[in-house]
Design brief:
The chain is an all-alpha fold and 219 residues long. Helices cover 73% and strands 0% of the residues. The chain has eleven helices and no strands. Helix 6 packs across helix 7. The longest helix is centred in the last third of the chain and has 24 residues. The chain is elongated. The N terminus is likely disordered.
């Protein structure tokens, strides 16, 4: 049994031609715009087809269901976030952290409905959306760990600290996109300084994990 069968997911149909792949990508791009600030439940398949100016059957052909279509959209948009988080290897660690957090906030700001879906669990308790969320978390934790400690695999203590920081980032970001009370640059610097505090706390508990110089400057 494959992963999709295990979770009962209506996975998109694989279509091999360049034309069909391009058509599928076009439908996903349309869907990203439709769901950019509209929740899953607010749009029916008839609404989607009408606003996308396509036959409803075409969406079913490629994605089998509304849920399959939506998951494909979320996965595609999350790929942008993962790409930003994993990029910037040529940058100094401090700059890479800033870039990662800024990219995270930009994604949340411009893909609010998808971001809320990922963070809050999506359609009920959706195991597929939960898997996407865990994948995003893993990439960000590994990216921050590599910038802070020079390696992606870290001990349970620093890993827990980074996960705790990331959980606070998720909650703060949900509040931020809901009210927009702070400029993005200010929000980014706040999250960076919160990270510095977490890294210093790790060093206090385990001196073998020393906080990087950028975090020490926050003292």
């Amino acid at each position: 049994m494959n992963h999709s069968q295990q979770h009962g997911v209506d996975r998109p149909r694989a279509r091999g031609t360049d034309r069909s792949l391009a058509r599928r990508a076009e439908l996903i791009a349309i869907g990203r715009k439709l769901f950019a600030d509209t929740s899953y439940d607010a749009l029916s398949m008839d609404d989607i087809a009408r606003q996308a100016h396509v036959a409803k059957g075409l969406i079913y052909y490629y994605f089998k269901s509304k849920r399959g279509y939506y998951l494909a959209i979320v996965e595609d948009s999350v790929a942008d976030l993962v790409s930003r988080a994993a990029g910037g290897l040529e940058l100094p660690p401090a700059e890479r952290v800033h870039r990662t957090i800024d990219g995270y906030l930009r994604y949340a700001e411009h893909n609010q409905a998808a971001y809320r879906t990922i963070i809050t669990g999506g359609v009920g308790f959706d195991t597929e959306v939960q898997a996407i969320r865990q994948g995003v978390r893993e990439v960000i934790v590994q990216t921050i760990a590599e910038g802070a400690y020079g390696r992606r695999k870290i001990a349970p203590l620093p890993r827990m600290a980074l996960l705790g920081w990331l959980c606070s980032v998720e909650g703060a970001t949900l509040e931020w996109i809901g009210h927009q009370g702070l400029p993005r640059d200010t929000m980014r610097e706040l999250l960076v300084k919160m990270l510095g505090g977490a890294l210093r706390a790790v060093e206090e508990l385990d001196p073998s994990y020393q906080a990087p110089p950028a975090a020490r400057r926050d003292t």
